[in-house]
Specification:
It is built from six helices and 32 strands. By secondary structure, the protein is α+β, with helices and mostly antiparallel strands. The strands form eight sheets. It has a six-stranded antiparallel beta barrel.
Length: 463
């Protein structure tokens, strides 16, 4: 064996792993895109929508109605058979007073059994539930509580009447012994089961102390289940006409003197109504006295209501104020526009000199951003300040830049880049504006505009 034999280390030939190369390229590409995304200013887009806005004139008013309190001639346990805010006619059974309390106790026990509901009553309740399901909107969740109260009152009314009919033999005997008294309405109206001391107050005799809600107290007549002789049983609203009294400042009072009718919105349920009004000054305070002839039953339980005076309501395209920008334009007399060249669009004849000093007239078609009877608004895209325009069929000329004006507008991004569009603002609040619809050079419903105009340059590609 040759001990001096040398061992030579084998060197593998150099080779490129294509998978590694692709991975590195993709990795670099991702890093580049992440860096670009982090360093690029991103433009938020807003879709133009239809909207209505009004000046904020929200007040809390005192509600006055024609109310009649009906007092009891008896002392005993009390049961009601008509749900609150129901309309009743002459001779309608409202409640009963049981001097012994025995029949009243039986009525209360019997109405706990819902199996006493007949098929007609069950169908009526089912229809009301289905109707509520069909009209329910998540943004008006408060209606759920109103519906619950209404259903509770309906069930109580139906079960109480059913219990009274089941116990007809007992009630007839007690009536003969003059210990059970059924109370019927003497006049038609809307029935309520509370008093608060405002029943005799009218638009003629109210005073400023009545607007102190901290001292307001409401007496629930149905709470105790009993009544003493001479105490209120219920009250009736006898007229559809009602008043809302609103304290206002002198500025609002003066602004309202030129008219006698206005539209108002009830904040409780977002319903609107029209009201006639007068303005009075009492002890140095101005009061707006609204008179309404409908919608009263919806608010029969309320003594105070929050309302909005819709004095200036505008409807149009609703856009955020952050999208609004301004741009200066050249004013060009409309008489200088003419159709010519290879374009069917109207353009201008501009006097220009070539590099050899030869004067000529060039026809251009600038973009018109707005137009009045006398002027068209154009920018500096195809003309510059100081250039002279030639009036067709005349020796007159006009120097660009002689007259300028500023327009308010937004950046329309429907085509993927920012285009200035003029807007006509009808009403503006702190956050939004209502702009006129159907303008020749403006925006349209469902257009896409830049949400923040300060982050956009005209003709910039939107990323």
């Amino acid at each position: 064996m040759n001990k001096n034999k040398k061992v030579v280390k084998y060197r593998k030939p150099f080779s490129i792993n294509i998978g590694v190369v692709i991975f590195v390229i993709i990795f670099i590409y991702l890093i580049f895109n992440v860096f670009s995304y982090m360093t690029t200013s991103h433009i938020s887009i807003y879709e133009v929508e239809q909207g209505t806005m009004a000046a904020n004139n929200v007040y809390r008013g005192l509600v006055l109605r024609d109310e009649q309190v009906i007092s009891s001639s008896y002392t005993g346990s009390l049961n009601y058979y008509i749900k609150e805010t129901s309309r009743v006619g002459y001779g309608s059974l409202i409640c009963s007073v049981d001097e012994s309390g025995d029949i009243s106790k039986m009525i209360n026990e019997a109405r706990k059994d819902s199996s006493n509901l007949d098929s007609e009553s069950l169908e009526a309740i089912e229809e009301r539930i289905l109707e509520f399901q069909d009209t329910y909107e998540a943004q008006n969740f408060y209606n759920v509580y109103t519906f619950k109260e209404d259903m509770d009152a309906t069930l109580n009314e139906t079960l109480s009447l059913g219990a009274l009919n089941q116990l007809s033999d007992y009630t007839a005997n007690a009536s003969n012994h003059n210990t059970f008294h059924q109370i019927y309405s003497d006049v038609p109206g809307i029935v309520l089961y509370y008093t608060d001391g405002f029943e005799s107050i009218t638009a003629e005799n109210f005073d400023g102390s009545m607007f102190d809600e901290a001292s307001y107290e409401k007496n629930n007549l149905s709470k105790d289940g009993s009544v003493n002789a001479g105490e209120p049983l219920y009250k009736l609203i006898n007229s559809e006409q009602w008043n809302i009294i609103v304290p206002v400042d002198e500025t609002v009072a003066t602004a309202l003197l030129d008219d006698d009718t206005m539209k108002i919105r009830f904040l409780k349920d977002d319903k609107t109504a029209y009201a006639t009004y007068t303005v009075e000054s009492r002890n140095g305070t101005y009061y707006l006295i609204l008179t309404l002839r409908n919608a009263m039953v919806r608010y029969a339980k309320d003594r105070f209501l929050e309302i909005e005076l819709l004095l200036t309501e505008e409807t149009g395209l609703k856009i955020p104020n952050s999208a609004i920008t301004e741009k200066e334009f050249y004013l060009i007399p409309t008489a200088y526009f003419v159709k010519g060249g290879d374009s069917v669009s109207e353009g201008l004849l501009v006097e220009r000199t070539d590099k050899n000093g030869k004067a000529s007239t060039e026809f251009i078609t600038p973009t018109i951003y707005y137009e009045t009877e006398d002027y068209c608004y154009i920018d500096s895209e195809k003309v510059t300040s100081g250039e002279r325009l030639v009036k067709p069929d005349s020796n007159e000329n006009y120097t660009v830049g002689t007259d300028t004006a500023v327009l308010k507008g937004v950046y329309n991004v429907n085509k993927g880049y920012a285009v200035f569009k003029q807007i006509d603002i009808l009403y503006q609040s702190e956050e939004y504006s209502i702009v006129k619809t159907g303008t020749a050079y403006g925006i349209s419903l469902y257009d896409h505009i830049a949400l923040d105009s300060s982050k956009v340059n005209e003709n910039e590609l939107i990323k």
